[in-house]
Amino acid sequence: MIRDALTSAFKTAGAGDDEHVLGMLRLLQTALRERDTAARAHGHPEGLSETELEAMLRDMVSQRRNHIERCECSARLAEAEQEQAEIDLIEGLLPPIVDDTTIERMVEQCIDETGAAKLKDTGKVISRLKERCPGSFDPVKVRRLLCTRLT
Predict the structure, then answer these.
(1) pTM reported for the whole predicted model
(2) Average pLDDT over residues 90-110
């Protein structure tokens, strides 16, 4: 799914005139190719899984957000805007993050389904949530919800 979106975006950018977008997509494809090669060397013939690819892209977004903060502190606003454009491009390839109300409802359902009552049951709930969640979710928010709900 993400691989298809990346390929499609690369073809679209290749037909356009935006060299920055094309360069960013080349960077993403190169990073993916390198990690696929490393995964194959470690016994995964199919390369990176969709989950691992999503994690790689979310890490890239996180790195760019940190860089934006440093740029804004140093008054390098043009560089910060460029980083934000890259974030927008990467996030366009990722599945949407589930909104807070939906995730709260899904966490409650997963707690009921797993019979979780204590904090030590957090792993069971998160595993079930990963199976059921149609998009991606913020793990920090989920852990906060679980900490308040489970004792």
Answers:
(1) 0.70
(2) 87
